[in-house]
Amino acid sequence: MNEKKLPAETVLYLVIPCYNEQEVLAETSRRLLEKLGAMVSLGRISPESRILFVDDGSKDKTWELIQAQHREHPQICGLKLAHNKGHQNALLAGLMTAKEYADILISMDADLQDDVDAVDQFVEKYHQGYDIVYGVRSSRATDTVFKRTTAQGFYKVMQALGVDIVDNHADYRLMSRRAVEALAQYKEVNLFLRGIVPLIGFPTAIVTYERHERFAGESKYPLKKMIAFAVEGITSFSVKPLRMITWLGIVILICSFVMLLALLVQKLFGYTVQGWTTLMGSIWMIGGIQLFCLGLIGEYIGKIYGEVKQRPRFIVEEFLHEQP
Fold first, then answer.
1. Which of 58, 82, 154, 302 falls between 20 and 30 A from 294, CA-CA?
2. How far apart are CA 19 and CA 220, in angstroms?
3. 103-112, 192-201, 234-243 — which is least confidently predicted?
């Protein structure tokens, strides 16, 4: 049974993964502190609510700034990972740490692209009985044409492959404590939280919001990382690409029989030709298809290799937290 506390007794933790975010961290802290203060004064959350910044092995002064903010504002906590483990692992580290103190947890990025004012709607949905609330972009007007096209294509491909994923949702979401405890039971090393969270199955809702331009600094997801993230999501949640290889092999086999039959007919009627271009083109095409298929199979084998080693998904070096 998921017992709900009164709004003023509900402890909220905002979990913010950070990697080289020194340019934006001060403004992010200011806005989030204002939001927490306003919600506490209105009786919507408990005064024990906190902001947890997770430093994912930053190379700049991100951790020093988190330490300074923590000394100045007790509501700000810090979690430092011993090594850069990537956005998804840093987010998971924050959730697993904060669930010991919070009733509800909201994850968001540090760049202030996620609308901070949507937090009120998240919490309202929670008190209406929802354990998971997804923040969904109402539009992609701030994206470039290329990013908008590739992002929409990514969601369509994932859904076509049978992955249960929420359209235009990144990692801006609310989760109740019991939802995060359920998430802790998923032990895979290859993390793709946008695909894992919908598998939990508790009551869910959606809050739409306008996504803003990045406040400062550079995006931590250039094209190379975006492609790697897409491959991670697809290969972590669907085996359909492997089945497509089987069907591709069948199609090529049928084509081979048809070509063989055509060549035999030509031989019988004396229409023999040199066929150098056709031969070489076929060899290059089949060779390319084989290498692609081997690479795809290797991607899955690599994931198995990573899972069976069972290495820790993150290691905490330092935790700054003031008990309420």
1. 154
2. 8
3. 234-243
